[in-house]
Amino acid sequence: MAVSGTPWYRMDNASVMYSAIQREEYSAIYRFSAWLREEVRPDALQRAVDRAMPRFPGFAVRIRRGFFWYYFEPNRANGPFVQPDSADPCRPVRFGEDNGWLVRFLYYGHRVSLEVFHAVADGAGALVFFRAVLAEYLRQMGEDVPVDCAVDLDAPPVAEEWEDAYLRYSSRVSRRMPGVKRAYQDLGTPEPFYTFHVTMGFVPIDQLKARAKALGGTITEYLAAVLLHLLLEKQRRETPRRQKPVSLGIPVNLRQYFPTETLRNFIMTVPVFADPALGEYSLAELVNLVRCQLRLHATPQELQAVLTRGVRLQYNPVLKVIPRVVKNVIMLRSYPKSGVRPFTATFTNPGYFALPEPMACHVEHMEVVLGQAAVPRPHVSAIGYGDTMEITVSGVQRERDLEREFFRFLVRDGLHVRVESNRR
Fold first, then answer.
1. Comparing C-alpha atoms, which of 422, 398, 379, 363 is closest to residue 113?
2. Cα gap 352→349, rounded to integer Å
3. Do strands 345-348 and 379-385 pair parallel, antiparallel, or not at all (unpaired)?
4. Average model confidence (pLDDT) for the chain?
5. Considering only Cβ atoms within 10 Å of each terminal Cβ, which end of the chain, N or C, has fewer?
6. Which residues face 113 on adjacent strands?
7. Using CA atoms, how far apart are residues 24 and 372, in angstroms rounded to an integer?
8. For residue range 1-28, what is the model confidence (pLDDT) as tens digits?
9. Alpha-carbon distances, residue 147 vs 48, 60, 128, 136, 152 (angstroms)
10. DSSP state letters, 284-321
């Protein structure tokens, strides 16, 4: 794909799905926030956004409805405009509003946030963009931030940053990702539109790492195991006639297996699950279970076969000639089978967000929020920065038992946790 002079370009495999299943009560939105040591100046932030957007044309797009597919085209409208933050983050995107912008910049007090519609990019790509905007914001505030602290905004856009890496790495072998067909559904009572609950816990990374290591796992494996444990216990308390497997969808960054500079979507969801029919599990056993399942299925060979299956569906000659409105109906009806029923919850950890010292001294901590799920159940996300891991439980369900039990469990397990929430 050319990054300049191109009137339109194809969506990648993930973009097609997110655009098709988007609806009024559901949008695949996620948010990254940086808590600065000084109060945010919206005028300086707007200048930083305006300066950064030309360097990142893949974020400066709008969605158009073609007869056969949705597609992206460059967004030449004014914006995106910096906005005051709201109490309920990650509001659904509407393709015809906000001049068609699919990214938002918001501010409140010391916090600056970036919200992205998942059709545009995954978290790894968005963090590159966010780091560049933060660097330019600090420059606009008079700070000495060298060019090599982030992407050089004076350099021309790089075509490889906007390649469809799914298409590039598709192969001849196609497979479905192993997992369960029907997992336990931790569904709650939906709140009125649009009420979005966010509860955050801040945990010292050294304590978290030490506890995970003591159980033989990484931070991601430990937190996923805690979540599995609590969901198994919750299902058991509900005393169903037959208990179902508890399954987590864990997004895996494919860039660690397949070299690419793309800032677009390039992730794959890998399921990890525990079946209560096989008996009870200790926390150490769950950590080992998560560890083994991730390492079994997150291999270059299996991931490539799974991504090939998605690409083949997108480029299937029969599907290509079906009108978009019919494709949307098909994808909306098939998504519950492939994207909802096999999972009890989603847990994502984009990893450690590192900043060079000229920037790090101005940022106190980072936050991440996954927007609402397709059904009223919680999402769990985490991001590390400095000496703190921030963990978020978010969703539109009225019940608060999962986040309460999650952070209480961490405290009982010997970790210090500071909790914040927007629940009223």
1. 363
2. 9
3. parallel
4. 93
5. C
6. 33, 106
7. 12
8. 434 456 778 899 899 889 988 887 788 9
9. 14, 22, 14, 9, 6
10. HHHHHHHHHHHHHH-SHHHHHHHHHHHHHHHT-HHHHT
Per-residue buried b or exposed e for 227-248, using 16+ beta carbons within 10 Å of the residue's own CB: bbbbbbebbeeeeeeeebbbbb
340: CB partners within 8 A, 6+ apart: 185, 374, 375
Residue whose pair of structure tokens reads 């799905």 in the numeric block: 17
Query: Residue 8 to residues 22, 63, 315: CA-CA distances in angstroms?
Result: 20, 10, 18
With a pLDDT cut of 90, the percent of the chain lying above it is 79
Average pLDDT over residues 321-327: 88
Query: Strand, helix or coil at 421?
Result: strand
pLDDT at position 158: 93
CA 2, 254, 344, 326 dihedral sign is positive
Around Cβ 218, how many Cβ atoms within 10 Å? 18
Amino acid type, 309: R
Tokens representing residue 255 in the block: 């860039």
Percent above pLDDT 70 for the chain = 98
User: Greater confidence, 103 or 332?
Assistant: 103
Residue pointed to by tokens 């969808």: 249
* Cα of 314 vs its chain's centroid, Å: 22
**Rounded Cα distance, 123 and 384, in Å:** 14
For residue 2, the tally of other CB atoms under 10 A from its CB is: 11
First-to-last CA distance in the chain? 46
Q: How far apart are the C-alpha atoms of 223 and 348, rounded to whole Å?
A: 10
Instruction: Give the residue carrying structure tokens 């939105």.
Output: 29
Predicted TM-score (pTM) of this structure: 0.95
Local confidence band at 50 (pLDDT 50, 70, 90 cut-offs): very high
What the block records as the tokens of 51 is 């300066």
- DSSP collapsed to 3 states, 62-118: EEEECCCCEEEEECCCCCCCCEECCCCCCCCCCCCCHHHCCEEEEEECCEEEEEEEC
